Amino acid sequence: MTIKNSSILNNTHHHYKTNLGDVFFFDHYFIAEFKEGLDIDYSSFEEIHGLIKKHYGNSPFAFIANRINSYSIVLPDAARFNTTFPNCKAYAIIAYSAITEKIYQIENHFFHFNRQIFSNIHEAIIWVESSLHPKK
Question: Which pTM does this prediction carry?
Fold first, then answer.
């Protein structure tokens, strides 16, 4: 399900159409819906990097990848993503296929973020919010 077709669209603070796809910013997390067939590397993520800095600065935030399309992340760039975003406290992936689930498992060997995979957007949001605001 796309964000545009979901009830959470009403909670969006900002929506951007970027070189990589649609990005929706909320209070403490953002949701990305990247375009089909992309190879996302560190340099292609620059526009979104700027938006993250604009919205969250050095504050903790979470990233939800709503993988409605098939794309790849250039894994040798994972180390740069890891060091550039130390304030990313949760990274949720919404998988709609078994292939995406397998890709998630491979990516886990390269990314050092607190990552989880989900089958729907609502579970992912609950998890990122609890990761950002743990109960004491």
Answer: 0.93
Q: Per DSSP, what are the bridge partners of residue 31?
A: 24, 64
CATH of the domain at 25: 3.30.750
Q: Domain residues for 100?
A: 3-132
Render 35-104 in DSSP notation, one character per residue. PTT-EE-TGGGHHHHHHHHHHHTTS-EEEEEE-SS--EE-GGGHHHHHHH-TTEEEEEEE--SHHHHHHH
Instruction: Say how many C-beta atoms besides its own lie within 10 A of residue 24's C-beta.
Output: 23
What domain count does the chain have? 1
pLDDT, tens digit, 9 for 90 and up, residues 61-111: 999 999 999 999 999 999 999 999 999 999 999 999 999 999 999 999 999
Which pair of tokens denotes residue 87?
């304030």
C-alpha to C-alpha distance for 88 and 55, rounded to whole angstroms: 13
